[in-house]
């Protein structure tokens, strides 16, 4: 790597990258679309159309850490005159991609600088917490935008709220008596704390960079970016929530997503020291809570202009 480049990668990326995980990201894409009202929030609708439909030269959209590229392909289909580029460490089969979509495989530390000052829109969803240096990533996102370009930055949170929107206390396996000397989970281990919130907390601690900050804070530290909107979204799981737009649909999709998520995270849990039997016990409690509880998951979405 040349000296001027910042190495943002935290090797290796810890979530799975198989077809099942791409399916889950497809479900998660539906969740985002239901929450924000489409591929981007209505509040930037005019800006997006202006940036992508106006101008003599072809507009460029970058989807940074695109995964299955479900968002990028959606944009390429919607804005057929724009060039939409997906960037990711891992390649997938992009079977239904239109011609104005292309993909570049590689670490963002290397692939992003090639686009300095070229992008009209940069989208980066659920990536910042997985890289070693999230602040450097956000600076690089600003660098690739043209002046006037738009940043669409999104991330999930690992906290859980109850139906009164109060924080649910997670069961912390590693703090429990069973974690070290007695490697087994017992029914009473959670002591009134949530196994569901505990799984998310456990997983967040395993995968999130120590230097991660909320996306709003990361963007505020970049002088060239002006925040247009920054919003927290709540998604109900297995119930419609209260006062939540598209709550009915979200509740159903979240129920499916969270089940996928538990099983997708199993490999990582095994590597972190949980036994198969412990995972089965945790999984049973997790499902019981998701089926009977009234939880919300928390997400963050921000738009900014250079
Ligand atoms: C949770 S997925 C999100 C995928 C997609 N943005 C979405 O919302 O559906 C995170 C993606 O970031 C990619 N990623 C993580 N670190 C990366 C890096 N240093 N360089 C390139 N891609 C990276 C992963 O390979 C993965 O596809």
From TrEMBL:
Q: Which GO terms describe its biological process?
A: methylation
* Pfam families named among the record's database cross-references: Methyltransf_23 (PF13489)
Which SUPFAM superfamilies does the protein's record reference? S-adenosyl-L-methionine-dependent methyltransferases
GO MF entry, a single one: methyltransferase activity
Quick check: keyword Nucleotide-binding in the entry?
Answer: no
What CDD domains does the record tag this protein with? AdoMet_MTases (cd02440)
- Alphabetical keyword list: Methyltransferase, Transferase
InterPro entries in UniProt: SAM-dependent_MTases_sf
What is the official name of this protein in its record?
S-adenosyl-L-methionine-dependent methyltransferase
Taxonomic lineage is: Eukaryota, Fungi, Dikarya, Basidiomycota, Agaricomycotina
